[in-house]
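Lab meeting prep.
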Amino acid sequence: MSELSDSTTAFMNTFNEKDYDGMIGLLSPDAVYVDPNGIEHRGTAAIGTSLKSIFDGTLGNVSYDVTSTILDDRNCRALVTWTMMMTAADGTRSTVDGLDILRFENGRLMSKNAFCKAEGLAIRPVA
């Protein structure tokens, strides 16, 4: 296994393990997360705030099924496809399919660009 493979697996596992502190610990201090709506979150505090609801139960019980991983060791990038399953407090279940483009440097996540299949498009104005 490569360092990239290990880093990718460790990062993705934090979500199913509900290990918020572990996820934060894998981020580079100047990491960038672009969420599925195209909103950019810079730094561990901003990223932590944007992802907290996945870990703290706000979205219900959340788990990820990683369906494929493609590693580019030379460029320290991973493409991870997944299905996120959410079970609300009332038992209602829903799923969403998505893709993360992850870039690591020295075992720390530098960027996470997330995409999801959805009914609507995330359209951003151009300045």
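Slide two material, second protein:
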Amino acid sequence: MMRVALYCFIQCTWGAIQSALGLIYFIIHLSDRHYFYHGAVITEWNAKSSVSLGMFVFVTREPFFYDKLKNKYTMEALSQRLLVHEYGHTIQSLVLGPLYLIIIGIPSALWGFLPNYHTKRRTKGISYFSFFTEAWANSLGERVTGQKSMENLMID
């Protein structure tokens, strides 16, 4: 219990910028399903992608890449791995504090959404999760939760 309280305290102080943004998204998506996961507030939303903002994690209900991986993973297993990955981003927020959005958020968004990076990943067989922001989130999420993350799955 003390660990969760410390997690929340640090996210609301050292990680205040991204947690404030997360709170705004949380309020906007108040009618969606919410639950706690290792101290983080998880929201399942209808967006195609997932995002972590401080202690707030927004995970897609149905990962857009499920069709590519359904022969290997159930929807539940893939969603759990994605949750561990996104939780790893919340640990990055704990470590980096006010630098999180600059060091993790912006590069991650560019890596994920710029068309030229999408094409590069697809044509060269590069995993989205090989980028430093994503690989580090996988590692942290696995270390803290003891569960498997996204590894180097191909989702493009």
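Talking points for slide two:
The chain has a mean pLDDT of 96.
The two ends are 39 Å apart (CA to CA).
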